[in-house]
Design brief:
heterodimer; A: Rossmann fold; 6-stranded mixed β-sheet; 8 helices; B: alpha+beta; Immunoglobulin-like; 8-stranded mixed β-sheet; 6-stranded antiparallel β-sheet; elongated; disordered C terminus
Chain lengths: 295, 529
């Protein structure tokens, strides 16, 4: 007797095309890094201060911050310090698990974004720890050490359905204590919270690098302007009748922009890249931005 | 209203479904959003113009469905069937006014009421109506049967103190009284002077199982008025006797004729009402109330003078107009006149057909063309009043002349109306009838007899046949008449509702009422690039 088990990886969240993309992430990471000038990734890029390999002659385009000025003072020539790449960089991927992530194809988009974050970290030869932010708690759910464990990552993401509230006001201040120093921190969230964006200041001075992947409010199949619709809050279940005319839509969009700008400002203030994305954004584009822009 | 297919009314159950469907379809669409964070500053939309505008469509849909359901049920409008009526004609007048007979009649009516219950209506007609203190001619059997057979009724009953005639038809005859009644009565009294000397002619009749003997006594002012004193008579059952008595000098006084037993004791039989008769000499006693309006009193006097002719009348300011045929005022009757107070709102009797009874008081009354105006608060019949004259408008009778025992009431104001009743023939005829009822002036010799004495020996016999001996059968009511089907009307109305329902949205669009077309989607926020 054969037992047909439910696929552990949700094909709705991770379709075949996305799985094929994941399989080529390590090669893509190498190819993308190879094509990038050293100067673009010099600050916190390849290698670290503790894996010194030697000097080489300065070439135009090198980051002048890597010039060893002691050599220049003694010998009168410009030499560049070279380091070996740090292979065991830890990538912390924290996914907002609240119910607000689900509507309007948000669940699939956020899960895929988290999967890409994990694949990137593993593709660069490091380790990945995946965690969920829910109800004010930050719960690690999986830790992967090699690209072959991406399937488990996808299974974890398939099992965890958005529910409850994120409680970012409580969860974010606790995160810096859980994130290892020097680790890459990636937060995937819609940031739909009344919490002060200043909670990100908890990351200041902790040597955390990474990005805030902001899933912006996706497009809504709303009634025509001038008509009334009942907005249903996915998190709280509250319902509010709203007459959506042109001015109202403008006001709502302005509030959303101001909200995003505030979080972007605070993220950049603590050294985190603010990376907005939408469910309709193609995974390839998001992967490219992750590889090229996230430190 | 009746339905050919009442089960089709189950179609009304679709109405709640239409209501639910309307609410479901017309409810503002619900959109799940990640958060209301950016919407909370917007005012809650309270007015739902779309839903309000569609309420008319809901009403049209409900009305159309309901009308279709009713039409499918095949409603028919039928004239309401009147409750069955039992027409009861009670023989009155003559010796039937005897209290024992009246009590028996009341018993019969109670039995009738108990038999028919509340399902039928008793229509009791006295023929003629009883008048206290008056001896009214009794109707014949034919008259009773004719009155019972008139009009529409589920059952017809005659209540009489006489045995049933041979031919009854569909009329049920109820005799009440005693079969062995013993009665001797004065049939007629007259004064004549065929030979220059006034003589009294008295006719006696006897009805009873046993022969009787007695005396006829004639007195004037308690004095025997003829030389022979009391005249003996002997009557076999069913026999008549005539007595002729020479009268002496009566000096214009009243003459009392009575029966007494051979031994001088008072006459005593089962019906005492016909044992005495009074011949009244001289004018009729009439009293006119002193407080009558001057115009009314004047017209009253004129009418009385015309009715009484040379006899004239006594006017005593003691009561309202009263006719006193004998010395005792309590045996007379009184005409009550009422007027409408100045400035009081007038109540007009509606246009209709005058309903005239058979009472002698309304004989030959001309009521044509009179617009009655009621005296204050007199437009209703009082308790126990008998309607003598009224106006029938629809199912309602508006009284004009009513009587209760010795009181005759004119419900309308004789000084109001168009034309005024006192200016029409109605007024002198009414007074003339009153005068006639008060005393018959045709006796002769200047005498008037109190009432009319027309008992017949054959009418005095009574057979007791209780009503309870058999059950009264109510004939089925006549056909309720043609009924009208409402189905076509309802179908047209339903189709009209549905057509309006179909046309309303198109008409609104035609009239360029603002209604934006829904779009495939609208962004609340620009999508990040």
């Amino acid at each position: 007797m054969s037992v047909i088990e439910k696929p552990s990886v949700d094909p709705q969240l991770f379709p075949g095309s996305f799985l094929r993309l994941l399989s080529v992430v390590p090669a893509a990471v190498r190819r993308l890094h190879a094509g990038v000038a050293d100067g673009r990734r010099a600050v916190r890029g390849e290698g670290g201060r503790f894996f010194f390999r030697g000097h080489r002659e300065y070439r135009p385009g090198d980051d002048i911050r890597r010039i060893d000025w002691n050599v220049e003072a003694r010998h009168g020539r410009l030499e560049i310090r070279q380091y070996d790449a740090q292979k065991d960089v830890l990538t912390e991927v924290w996914l907002d698990g609240s119910a607000s992530m689900a509507p309007c194809e948000g669940r699939g988009a956020s899960a895929r974004a988290a999967a890409l974050c994990c694949a990137t970290g593993l593709g660069e030869g490091g380790r990945v720890r995946l965690g969920i932010l829910r109800d004010g708690q930050a719960l690690p759910v999986f830790e992967a050490t090699e690209p072959g464990q991406m399937r488990q990552v996808l299974e974890v993401l398939s099992r965890d359905a958005p529910a409850g509230q994120a409680g970012l006001a409580q969860a974010l201040p606790r995160l810096p204590r859980q994130v290892a120093s020097g680790a890459r921190f990636l937060l995937v969230s819609d940031l739909l919270t009344r919490a002060d964006a200043g909670v990100l200041q908890a990351f200041a001075g902790r040597g955390v690098r990474g990005a805030v992947l902001h899933m912006r409010v996706p497009e809504v199949h709303a009634p025509a302007p001038g008509s009334t619709f009942r907005a249903h809050d996915a998190e709280s279940g509250a319902i509010r009748s709203v007459r959506l005319d042109g001015p109202a839509a403008g006001r709502i969009a302005a509030r959303a922009r101001a909200h995003a700008d505030l979080w972007a400002q605070h993220a950049q203030g603590v050294g985190l890249l603010y990376l907005p994305f939408a469910p309709s954004m193609s995974p390839e584009v998001l992967l490219r931005r992750l590889v090229l822009e996230v430190p | 209203m009746s339905f050919a297919a009442p089960w089709a009314l189950l179609g009304l159950l679709v109405l709640p479904f239409i209501w639910w469907l309307h609410k479901k379809l017309r409810r503002p669409p619900e959109v799940e959003l990640p958060s209301l964070l950016f919407l909370e500053a917007e005012a809650e939309a309270r007015a739902l113009p779309r839903g309000r505008r569609l309420d008319a469509e809901l009403l049209l849909a409900l009305a159309g469905a309901a009308l279709l359901a009713f039409a499918a049920a095949g409603p028919r409008l039928e004239k309401p069937a009147a409750p069955p009526t039992v027409r009861v004609v009670v023989s009155g007048g003559g010796p039937a006014d005897h209290e024992g007979y009246l009590a028996a009649v009341r018993e019969v009516l109670r039995d009738l009421r108990a038999q028919v219950g509340d399902a039928a209506q008793l229509d009791v007609i006295w023929l003629p109506e009883p008048m206290a203190g008056f001896f009214v001619a009794r109707p014949s059997d034919e008259a009773l049967l004719g009155a019972a057979g008139a009009g529409q009724a589920a059952a017809r009953v005659v209540v009489s103190d006489r045995p049933a005639p041979a031919e009854l038809g569909s009329v049920r005859w109820v005799s009440c009284g005693r079969a062995d009644v013993q009665n001797t009565g004065i049939v007629s009294v007259a004064v004549a002077s065929p030979e220059g000397v006034p003589e009294l002619f008295v006719t006696l009749a006897h009805q009873g199982p046993r022969a009787v003997q007695g005396l006829v006594r004639v007195t004037a002012s308690r004095r025997l008025v003829f030389a022979g004193g009391s005249v003996p008579f002997a009557l076999e059952p069913g026999a008549y006797a005539s007595v002729r008595l020479p009268l002496g000098d009566l000096a214009g006084g009243d003459v009392d004729v009575g029966l007494e037993q051979a031994d001088g004791e008072a006459w005593d039989d089962d019906l005492m009402h016909d044992d005495d008769a009074t011949l009244v000499h001289g004018p009729l006693g009439v009293r006119i109330h002193a407080d009558l309006p001057p115009l009314l009193a004047s017209r009253l006097r004129h009418a009385l003078a015309a009715a009484l002719g040379a006899q004239g009348f006594d006017e005593r300011a003691r009561a309202q107009l009263s006719f006193v045929p004998r010395g005792s005022p309590e045996t007379g009757f009184r005409l009550e006149l009422q007027t409408l107070a100045e400035g009081a709102p007038a109540t007009h009797a509606p246009a209709g057909v005058d309903a005239v009874g058979r009472d002698p008081l309304v004989r030959d009354l001309s009521t044509a063309g009179i617009g009655w105006v009621y005296a204050e608060g007199a437009e209703r019949l009082g308790d126990g009043e008998l309607l003598l004259l009224g106006r029938r408008a629809g199912e309602t009778l508006w009284p004009v002349l009513a009587r209760k025992l010795g009181r005759v009431r004119l419900a309308v104001d004789p000084l109001r109306g168009e034309p005024r009743p006192i200016d029409t023939p109605f007024w002198p005829l009414l007074i003339q009838n009153l005068v006639r009822a008060a005393g018959d002036v045709s006796v002769g010799g200047g005498y008037r007899a109190h009432g009319l004495l027309h008992p017949r020996s054959s009418e005095l016999g009574t057979v007791n046949e209780p009503l309870a001996a058999s059950t009264l059968t109510l004939a089925p009511p006549p056909s309720a008449g043609a009924s009208r089907s409402l189905q076509p009307l309802l179908i047209v109305a339903a189709l009209a509702c549905l057509a309006l329902l179909w046309a309303a949205p198109r008409l609104r669009r035609r009239l360029a009422v603002t209604r934006a077309r829904p779009r495939a989607g609208a962004r609340l926020e620009a999508e990040p690039g």
